[in-house]
Amino acid sequence: MTNSISQTPSYTSPLLKRPGAAPLADDSLVDSQGVAWHYGDPLGEQRAIDGGAAVIDRSHRRVVAITGDDAATFLNNLLTQKLDNAADGFSADALDLNIQGHILHQCSVTRAGDTFYLDMPSYIFEPFVDFLQKMIFWSQVDITEKDLGILTLLGTERPLIDDLPAAYSRVVDWDGVARIDLAVARGDLDAVVDKLIQRGAKLAGLMAFTAERVRAGEPELRADLDERSIPHEIPRWINRGEKTRAVHLEKGCYRGQETVARVENLGRSPRLLVLLQLDGSAPEDPAPGSDVTYGGRRIGRLGTVVHDCDYGPIALALLKRSAIEADELAISGESPVSAKVDADFLPDEESTKAGRDAIAKLRGQN
Fold it and tell me: Can you tell me the distance from the alpha carbon of 13 to that of 150, in angstroms, rounded to the nearest whole number?
C-alpha cells in the first residue's frame, strides 16, 4: 500500500493568461480560485453553448487515483455509489455521508481500466482523502494524487474529443445540456484547449458552467448545502430508472445508508433544493449563505447565485417544503432581494412510499 498526497500551494491555471481572462473578483463559496470566471464576454460565452460547443477550464478541481486489488469493494463500502461491479468506462457522482446520513463530501468517480479516478472541489480534497486513507486498514489499495485538470465541454457530443490525450473522459448524466468531462495533464491544458478551439469550441469561463449547473439543479457542497443536508434534499441525486446519479438505492451497506433508506421508504426530506428567480432590479446580488425568508420568518438558505444569459439572476436554495409554493420570498442582506421559486424546476416525486404502503396494509388500511 502506498499513499502519495501533496499539500499543494494555491493553483493557478495556465489558461488565466489568455486574453480577457478574469477570475471571480469576490470571495465566493463556489470553488472558483485559480481559473477564469469569464474571458471578457460572460453572457456571450453562455450563448456559445446553444447550438455549438463551449470548453470550460475546471482544472482547479483535484484528482486522486485509487488502484489495487480491493479498489472497487473499498470504494463501494464507503460511498453512496455502487462500484463493486463497475465496468471499465463507468462514471457517476458519489457522496460520503456521516452516520446520521448528512453529506460530508461529494465527488465524481470514473473507472478507466483498473483505476478509479475521483475528482472533487479543491476544498474537499484534503479532508476527504484523509478519510479514505484512514479507512484502508488491510485493504489492498493505493491512493495517489494525479496532476490532472478537468476540462468540461458543454453542448457537444463525444466526437469533438476524439484522439485528444486524456487520462479519462466521461459523458455526464445530468439534467442539463450535453456535457463531457475530460481529464488531461495540467501541462497539456493549453495544447488541448487549442485543439478544441480549432475544432469549433469556444473557450468559456466558469461562470458559463455555473449557470448551466444551477439550471440543471446540481449543487456544490460548500455553496449550496450545509452540515444538515441529506441526499434526498436533492432529488436529482437519487438514482431512479435508467438514470445514473450519486445515490444508488440498491447496493450494500455504507455509512449513512439507514437515513437514505428511511427517507426513501417512509417519508420525505424536510427541505428541498429549488431554483429561484431573483429580482433583476436589485442593486447587487445577494450572497450565498444568506437567509431566505417568507413573511419575516426564515425558511431556507441561499446557495449559488449567477447571472444566466436567458433568465437573468438565478440561484439555488434549500427551502422548507412548506414554503416552496410561497408567492414571494425575500433574501436578507443590506439590500433585501425578492425571489420566487421556479415551479418548472420542481421534480416529480413519488406520491406514495413503499414503506408507508406496507404499514397501511399491516394496519388493514389497504
Answer: 11
Q: Where are the domains of the chain?
A: 13-215, 269-348
Residues 164 and 65: their CA atoms lie apart, in Å, by 20
Q: Which CATH number fits domain 13-215: 3.40.50.300, 2.30.42.10, 3.30.1360.120, 3.30.420.40?
A: 3.30.1360.120
Task: Give dist(CA 265, CA 355) in Å, integer.
Answer: 5
Instruction: Round to the nearest angstrom and report the end-to-end CA distance of the chain.
Output: 55
Give 118-164 pLDDT, tens digit per residue. 999 999 999 999 999 999 999 999 999 999 999 999 997 767 888 89
- Cα separation values, 302 from 294, 308, 316, Å: 13, 17, 6
Q: What is the pTM of this model?
A: 0.92
Grid-cell match 457517476, residue found: 92
Angle at 295 between CA 272 and CA 229, to 5 degrees: 20
Map residue 91 onto helix, strand or coil.
Answer: strand
